């Protein structure tokens, strides 16, 4: 920021602005990373900033903003220290969708239909939500949020056209999506497993994956633990595959159980 008087003027102008307010102004400059806006009421310099993904959900930034253009945008955040207001013109471009997403609350249950399965996640057309201007659904589930179990294929859990009930996680303002969790609507098998398991317990499980640093062992339905390479044998191990193979059943001992991180550490050498 500038000198003390300029700082004071900026703070005084920004202080009343709240997240969710609608601001108007003129585009001052466009770079590859942002659009700066001179806000009405403060002509000294641009205080508004629109990120590339907040400009529009329908058009690329180069087509959606022009220097000198008047814009209307919703406030996403206010930084008094930096003297900047983060804005979204995508919000005012899609008011019905934005208003719907703003009303959602963490943990809220939403129903819909699986609209598309992509390599990066699953789109869900929500029953109560409006259409998305670009994507096949307003709801979006990342792969980790599909199931508590490690999946080989998405088809193990969902398919296009399937009805689903999910929990709302967050409003993705960049993409105009409701981030959802399907697994949150189902019991966590790890927590159930942890209730009846303690450090030192012997378990029998199947090796599911062999990696350079160790192997994963399925010890219960939906529960896998890691046997670090150092815990595979009493002697040095150059390669885990020299000791065990995928599909092999082995007996292990629980060495650590982290409920918060959902991590289970196992030892093969302690069991032998």
Condensed summary:
With 272 residues, the chain is mainly beta. The chain has helices at residues 4-14, 52-55, 61-64, 89-93, 95-103, 189-195; strands spanning 22-30, 35-39, 48-50, 70-79, 84-88, 109-118, 121-126, 139-141, 163-172, 177-181, 202-211, 214-220, 223-228, 249-258, 263-267.
Produce the secondary structure layout.
Blueprint: H1 4-14, E1 22-30, E2 35-39, E3 48-50, H2 52-55, H3 61-64, E4 70-79, E5 84-88, H4 89-93, H5 95-103, E6 109-118, E7 121-126, E8 139-141, E9 163-172, E10 177-181, H6 189-195, E11 202-211, E12 214-220, E13 223-228, E14 249-258, E15 263-267
Explained architecture:
The structure is a single chain. With 272 residues, this protein is mainly beta. The protein folds into three domains: 4-93, Nucleic acid-binding proteins (OB fold (Dihydrolipoamide Acetyltransferase, E2P), Beta Barrel); 96-185, Nucleic acid-binding proteins (OB fold (Dihydrolipoamide Acetyltransferase, E2P), Beta Barrel); 195-271, OB fold (Dihydrolipoamide Acetyltransferase, E2P). Helix content is 15%, strand content 38%. It is built from six helices and 15 strands. The strands form three sheets. A five-stranded mixed beta barrel has the order 1-2-3-5-4. Strands 6-7-8-10-9 form a five-stranded mixed β-barrel. The mean pLDDT is 93.
């Amino acid at each position: 920021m500038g000198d003390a008087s300029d700082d004071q003027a900026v703070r005084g102008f920004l202080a009343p602005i709240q997240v969710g307010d609608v601001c108007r102004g003129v585009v001052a400059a466009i770079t590859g990373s942002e659009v700066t806006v001179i806000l009405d009421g403060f002509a000294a310099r641009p205080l508004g900033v629109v990120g590339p993904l907040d400009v529009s959900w329908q058009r690329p930034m180069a087509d959606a903003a022009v220097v000198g253009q008047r814009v209307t945008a919703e406030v996403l955040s206010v930084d008094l220290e930096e003297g900047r207001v983060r804005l979204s013109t995508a919000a005012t471009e899609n008011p019905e969708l934005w208003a719907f997403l703003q009303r959602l609350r963490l943990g809220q249950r939403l129903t819909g239909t699986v609209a598309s399965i992509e390599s990066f996640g699953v789109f869900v057309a929500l029953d109560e939500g409006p259409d998305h201007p670009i994507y096949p659904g307003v709801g979006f589930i990342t792969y980790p949020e599909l199931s508590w179990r490690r999946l080989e294929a998405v088809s193990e859990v969902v398919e296009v056209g399937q009805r689903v009930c999910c929990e709302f996680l967050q409003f993705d303002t960049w993409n105009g999506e409701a981030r959802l969790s399907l697994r949150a609507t189902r019991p966590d098998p790890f927590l159930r497993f942890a209730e009846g398991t303690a450090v030192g317990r012997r378990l029998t499980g199947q090796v599911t994956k062999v990696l350079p640093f160790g192997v994963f062992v399925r010890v219960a339905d939906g529960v896998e633990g890691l046997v670090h390479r150092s815990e595979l044998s009493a002697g040095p191990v150059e390669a885990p595959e020299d000791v065990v193979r995928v599909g092999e059943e082995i007996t292990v001992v629980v060495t650590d159980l982290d409920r918060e991180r959902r991590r289970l550490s196992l030892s093969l050498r302690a069991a032998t």
